[in-house]
UniProtKB/TrEMBL annotation:
Residues 8-57, 58-108 form the Myb-like domain. It is found in: Nucleus. InterPro entries: Homeodomain-like_sf, Myb_dom, Myb_TF_plants, SANT/Myb. This is Uncharacterized protein. The lineage of its organism: Eukaryota, Viridiplantae, Streptophyta, Embryophyta, Tracheophyta. One of its GO terms (molecular function) is DNA binding.
Length: 215
DNA sequence: AAATCGCCCAACCGCTGCAAC
DNA sequence: TGTTGCAGCGGTTGGGCGATT
């Protein structure tokens, strides 16, 4: 077993350490990670304790292969959010940011590279370079009944027509999978993604996504 | 059977953001 | 306003293990 310069244990966790950590969290709850090693009687740093709990000991963590639904969701959320693994994981019940990150690196990235290779061999693709845009908090607002376009148009008074149209195109490019022949996905929990009936609109009605996007 | 390779995933490290002072 | 400490995040590493030679 390796130790840090401060004498902290490093490396794989033992069952005894897991049990101590479980007991401690059970008694005091999550948080105050700097106190956890002391409370639990563990010779581990707070980061190590937190990581172990979040990635391995938290109840309801799913183990095993990712389902097709989960794969699809990860791809779409990654397209939307980039490498914001914790946010992506927050949308996938039972999966941790570390799980999602590892999965992406080992599976999805390979898939995308293979897809790109195939695409390059068959067609000459046009590279789209969307301009980065700034959205204000008021831009997207009513989650209950609006589409992206409606949200953006709501700001017509405060933005120039060019900016408005640019915003709409940017969002459509980002979200519209229709042109690629992608018909979207309906997840087992009933949430639909892509351009099925309701499509992205349903996805965006889900309040959390707007919070994620920090509109 | 042994050696090597490659994949997967648990764990670590460095950084940033934020709150308290 | 600057400093400090904590929490959390994403990138990276390294060990275990199965597959291949």
């Amino acid at each position: 077993m390796v130790s840090s310069p401060l004498g902290m244990r490093k490396g794989a966790w033992t069952k005894e350490e897991d049990n101590l950590l479980r007991k401690c969290i059970g008694k005091y709850g999550e948080g105050k990670w700097n106190l956890v090693p002391l409370r639990a009687g563990l010779n581990r740093c707070r980061k190590s304790c937190r990581m172990r709990w979040l990635n391995y000991l938290t109840p309801n963590i799913k183990r095993g292969d990712f389902t097709q639904d989960e794969d699809d969701l990860i791809i779409r959320l990654h397209k939307l959010l980039g490498n914001r693994w914790s946010l992506i994981a927050g949308r996938i019940p039972g999966r941790t940011a570390n799980d999602v990150k590892n999965h992406w690196k080992t599976h999805q990235q390979k898939k995308l590279v293979a897809q790109k290779d195939r695409a390059q061999k068959t067609t000459k693709s046009t590279i789209l370079k969307p301009k980065p845009l700034t959205f204000s908090k008021t831009m997207a607002c009513s989650i209950e009944s609006s589409t992206f376009e409606q949200n953006i148009r709501r700001n017509e008074n405060s933005s120039s027509p060019k900016v408005i149209e640019g915003s709409i195109k940017w969002w459509n490019n980002l979200l519209d999978t229709k042109e690629n022949g992608d018909q979207g996905t309906t997840l087992s929990n009933g949430l639909s993604l892509g351009f099925l009936e309701g499509g992205w609109e349903d996805f965006c009605r889900d309040k959390n996504i707007w919070e994620i996007l920090e509109f």
